[in-house]
Design brief:
Strand content: 25-35%
Shape: globular
Structural class: mainly beta
Number of strands: 4
Order of helices and strands: EEEHE
Largest sheet: 4 strands, antiparallel
Helix content: under 10%
Length: 88
């Protein structure tokens, strides 16, 4: 697990039966043992959380599948979350 450094991320999304599209985060965040803001602080400060801007096609009416694809550690090993449906 990452203890200190820089982190960014990537989402997977799709509308309907088509293939998944990938969307990188708009920013990077610093993480570390000394940097432990509260969850509330992270949610309200764009500098403390990963941010994604969904394209217009993703926010149109209808069901949207949205999944965290990976956390990217520049110069390190990408972190992939466990997938409840076994897609990883």
């Amino acid at each position: 697990m990452l203890h200190e450094g820089v982190l960014t991320g990537e989402l997977e999304w799709r509308h309907g039966p088509g293939g998944m599209s990938y969307l990188p985060a708009m920013n990077r965040i610093e993480v570390g043992t000394a940097l432990r803001p509260s969850l509330q602080a992270q949610r309200h400060d764009v500098k403390l959380s990963l941010n994604f801007r969904l394209p217009a096609e993703a926010v149109r009416a209808g069901p949207l599948e949205l999944v965290l694809h990976r956390l990217i550690v520049p110069g390190g090993v990408d972190l992939r979350p466990a997938s409840p449906n076994g897609r990883n």
